[in-house]
Amino acid sequence: MTDDEYTESAAQLDRLSAVPDDVLAELVARDGLCLWTFDRNDFPEGETDRATAARMCAGCPVIDECLELDLRTAGENTAGVWGALPDTARRALFPVWLRRRGGEAR
């Protein structure tokens, strides 16, 4: 992703900034395709790539909510697939997202 794409992704999540963590977690658990479409053995171990993330999250209705939740709770320590992005992209997105939130995670 480019710097502009990270900025755009972070801006897209601004609409979720006031949603409480527990509400995001409930939405992701209830509506996230990964939680009822895939067997736990389907989840990759270690670093994930963009193709794996895109495949696992294709058509999911809560991609943004999932990404917002991971940025809040895992931040730069993220792992696995969240919000249709591989962990390396989420680590790069985190500081951009954090700056938009005034430099502090909730």
SSE arrangement:
Blueprint: H1 3-12, H2 21-31, H3 34-37, H4 50-57, H5 63-73, H6 87-100
Helix pairs in contact: 1-6, 2-5
Number of strands: 0
- Portion of residues within helices: 40-55%
Terminal CA distance reads 25 Å
Main beta sheet:
none
Mean pLDDT: 87
Low confidence ranges: none
Order of helices and strands: HHHHHH
Class derived from helix and strand content:
mainly alpha
Strand proportion, as a percent range, falls in under 5%
Number of distinct helices:
6
Rg is 13 Å
Principal-axis shape equals: globular
Structure explained in plain terms:
With 106 residues, the protein is an all-alpha fold. α1 crosses α6 (87-100) and α2 (21-31) crosses α5. The chain has helices at 3-12, 21-31, 34-37, 50-57, 63-73, 87-100. 55% of the residues lie in helices and 0% in strands. The chain is globular, with a radius of gyration of 13 Å. The chain is built from 6 helices and no strands.
